[in-house]
Amino acid sequence: GAVVSQHPSWVICKSGTSVKIECRSLDFQATTMFWYRQFPKQSLMLMATSNEGSKATYEQGVEKDKFLINHASLTLSTLTVTSAHPEDSSFYICSAMDRGPETYGYTFGSGTRLTVV
Amino acid sequence: LAKTTQPISMDSYEGQEVNITCSHNNIATNDYITWYQQFPSQGPRFIIQGYKTKVTNEVASLFIPADRKSSTLSLPRVSLSDTAVYYCLVGDMVARGFKTIFGAGTRLFVKA
After folding, report:
1. Do residue A105 and residue B93 have CB atoms under 8 angstroms apart?
2. Which of B57, B88, B99 to mutate to test the interface with A (most CBs of A within 10 A)?
3. Is residue B3 a contact partner of residue B88, using CB atoms and an 8 Å limit?
4. A110 has a chain B CB within 8 A of its CB
5. Phi, psi of B80 (to 5 degrees)
6. Is residue A91 within a helix (H) or strand (E), and if so which, with residue range?
7. pLDDT digits (tens, 9 = 90+) for A55-65
């Protein structure tokens, strides 16, 4: 089946630095990818929709200048957390939608645990 | 986007059948019902999807009544490893740009 690879699986960074998270669709082309964040014991919260070749669409309340999304190819979307602060510490997850309509169109990455110290 | 309502948590014992019901009263004609499983510190994993009646695969069954305003995920003979959070999502999987909005999910705890 479809596989989405997310890297790194965990990262620790200093406050004020930037961190890039990659999301790759390994065996299919993904015109649309989604980025989520999840705090402990909570559900996934959609942050933005990443569209190949165009600007990402951010959900209300998500700062686009802080969470930079680039979807430069049909297999790769990146999320960069800029000037990270401890409150940005969270579990970030991406998902990808296959190009064509399928019975199930969304495959999720394994997530990235970001800790800002 | 159809809003979903699930029980917050459920407890079960190994070997029992577990049924988790999801309410989605404003489901649209083109919407499918999809269930995901999530373990701690992992991304959600697809379990099953259906549109109407009953769907069965190697891990679960999905029951959808005729009015489609609810659905029930059935896990036969659960084991300790089925302890996880289960999410019910409703949406038009065919439409491009369909956003997967997660509800609170159901936290299933399987005891020995």
Report:
1. yes
2. B99
3. no
4. yes
5. -55, -35
6. strand A90-97
7. 999 999 999 99
d(CA B6, CA A4): 27
Nearest Cα residue in chain B from A3: B45
Mean pLDDT of the residues in chain A: 91
Q: Out of A43, A49, A109, whose CB is closest to B99?
A: A49
What is the C-alpha separation between B45 and B50, in angstroms, rounded? 16
Between vectors from CA B88 to CA A38 and to CA A64, what angle results, nearest 5°? Answer: 35
pLDDT band for A108, please (50, 70, 90 cuts): very high
A8 vs B105: CA distance, rounded Å: 26
Q: What is the mean pLDDT of residues A70-91?
A: 95
Where do the H-state alpha helices sit in A1-117?
Answer: none
CA distance A73 to chain B (A): 17
Q: Which residues lie below 8 Å from residue B76, measured CB to CB, with a gap of 6+?
A: B17, B60, B61
